[in-house]
Design brief:
The chain has helices at 90-106, 110-140, and strands at residues 4-9, 14-20, 22-27, 30-34, 41-54, 57-71, 74-79, 82-84. 27% of the residues are buried. It is α+β, with helices and mostly antiparallel strands. The chain contains two helices and eight strands; from the N terminus they run ββββββββαα. It has two domains: 4-85, F0F1 ATP synthase delta/epsilon subunit, N-terminal (ATP Synthase, domain 1, Sandwich); 89-140, Up-down Bundle (Single alpha-helices involved in coiled-coils or other helix-helix interfaces). The two termini are 31 Å apart. The protein is 34% helix and 44% strand. Strand 5 (41-54) and strand 6 form a beta hairpin. The structure holds adenosine-5'-triphosphate (ATP). Adenosine-5'-triphosphate is lined by residues 64, 81, 83, 87-89, 92-93, 96, 119, 122-123, 126.
């Protein structure tokens, strides 16, 4: 069976490298589902949940934006930050989310507002991935 060779990296580390059957990514213009034999593609990603299916099992990764290239059954993602669901500290993400929301209300310039909004989107993606992982785990038990 044809697979997708998926690599997710940040400037600091290789986050995920596996042969998978589906990648669903938060494209700048909406969710993108990539299956084997997908046409070549280069796109930006927005902060959100990345879902991959390997051997019928779904894994979740939080990304905070970046680029995705699809070429000859290879999917390469270079993300600003990325964490696998099991790496996410949900409490830290919730605290960061509250802090970002406060900073948004107190922003005194467009730059401060944009910085706070970016922090809010990063932490929202982490909270969403951690929650979904928790729900999946409790449903399996
Ligand atoms: P915080 O204020 O909690 O540091 P942040 O959004 O400012 O959040 P980033 O600058 O996006 O954090 O990330 C810094 C590093 O910490 C990155 O390597 C990122 O992968 C990691 N990281 C950030 N938040 C979490 C989290 N909740 N759980 C695990 N790793 C995280």
């Amino acid at each position: 069976m044809t697979v997708l060779k998926l690599e997710i990296a940040t400037a600091e580390r290789l986050v995920y490298a596996e042969d998978v059957s589906i990648v669903v990514a938060p494209g700048a213009d909406g969710e993108l589902a990539i299956l084997p034999e997908h046409t070549s593609l280069l796109t930006t990603l927005k902060p959100g949940e990345l879902r991959v299916v390997k051997d019928g099992k779904e894994s979740l990764i939080a990304v905070s934006g970046g680029f995705m290239e699809v070429l000859s059954n290879r999917v390469t993602i270079l993300a600003d930050t990325a964490e696998r669901s099991e790496e996410i500290d949900e409490e830290r993400a919730s605290i960061a989310l509250k802090r970002a929301q406060e900073q948004m209300t107190q922003a005194s310039s467009q730059m401060e507002l944009e910085k706070a909004m970016a922090a809010m989107r990063r932490s929202q993606a982490r909270v969403a991935v951690a929650r979904r992982k928790r729900r999946t785990n409790s449903a399996a038990n």
